[in-house]
Write a structure and sequence with these properties.
With 286 residues, this protein is an all-alpha fold. The chain is built from 12 helices and 2 strands, in the order H-E-E-H-H-H-H-H-H-H-H-H-H-H.
């Protein structure tokens, strides 16, 4: 079974199915006059059931006793398709960074005009989150380039933790934005997606620092990617939508590479010869 194809496809299909169910939930269960969702909506139970089935499938199908422990053996792939996805994630994060900074500046202006009505922490956290997301985009691009070229780079390795750091600040900013909202269902899926995607990039970076956790990296990347796509159905602002899509694409891309290196098959011969020997990889990593 080609898990490197089936599981990412399942995550994409699950995200698309969840997107449809979430839109049905908004259309059929939301009560705008109250600002609340009606309890017991069938679309909600279907949505929660889908998320539970995806989590169970990914948990069971990513179990492996053996696999790569270092970054290049785990994610190395000289194919142009993988690099193209990382480049797309970089562009989306650059856009998200700009949108986050603009939102933060707008919020700071509102706070300065009426400090008794607004909190400075909300726009400040959004600005910081936007700036870190832009830096995280460069980190993802450089990590993708290392995987594409099959050689480690000291500067790129130092930047590797940035996506996880940006995710933590993004999670904090999202909580501040929605913390006064009494209806958890309005933003709960987004917070869950941000948390899972942050963990996915944290465990991916761990392969560069001798902290490889293969199953956790695959599980959080697949489930986080699915929930990230699902959360786009909430029609978030430009910053959140761009960041969710970028993190989901990069997480699923990392998961696909790790699934292939863990469960096979090997790279095609036309690409295999472009990867450096294992001895050279370890020497570079040292």
């Amino acid at each position: 079974m080609r898990k490197d194809l089936i599981l990412p496809a399942l995550a994409l299909a699950g995200g698309a199915g969840g997107f449809f169910l979430r839109r049905r939930h908004w259309a059929g269960a939301y009560q705008p006059e109250l600002g609340l969702f009606a309890s017991g909506a069938p679309s909600l139970w279907a949505l929660l059931g889908l998320a539970a089935l995806l989590a169970l499938a990914f948990l069971l199908l990513t179990r492996a006793k053996e696999g790569p422990e270092d970054f290049l053996p785990a994610f190395g792939n000289p194919g142009a398709g993988q690099m193209a996805v990382f480049a797309a994630a970089w562009l989306l994060l650059m856009f998200a960074g700009a949108a986050g900074v603009v939102d933060g500046i707008r919020g700071l202006r509102l706070w300065r005009s009426a400090p008794e009505m607004y909190q400075m922490s909300v726009p400040a956290a959004r600005m910081l989150s936007g700036g870190l997301c832009a830096l995280a985009g460069f980190s993802i691009l450089f990590m993708g380039r290392m995987a594409y070229r099959g050689e480690l780079n000291d500067a790129a390795c130092r930047l590797a933790p940035l996506p996880a750091l940006a995710g933590v600040v993004w999670l904090f900013s999202a909580h501040l934005q929605s913390g006064i909202e009494p209806e958890l269902l309005k933003y709960g899926f987004q917070l869950a997606a941000i948390c899972l995607l942050t963990l996915a990039h944290y465990y991916t970076a761990g392969f560069l620092f001798g902290r490889a956790c293969r199953q956790r990296a695959m599980f959080f990347s697949l489930l986080g990617g699915a929930l990230g796509l699902l959360s786009l159905a909430d029609r978030p602002d430009l910053f959140t939508a761009s960041a969710l899509l970028a993190y989901s694409l990069s997480a699923l891309n990392f998961a696909k590479a790790l699934l292939r290196s863990t469960f096979g098959p090997p790279l095609p011969k036309r690409l295999e010869g472009r990867m450096p020997p294992a001895e050279e990889e370890h020497a570079d990593g040292a």
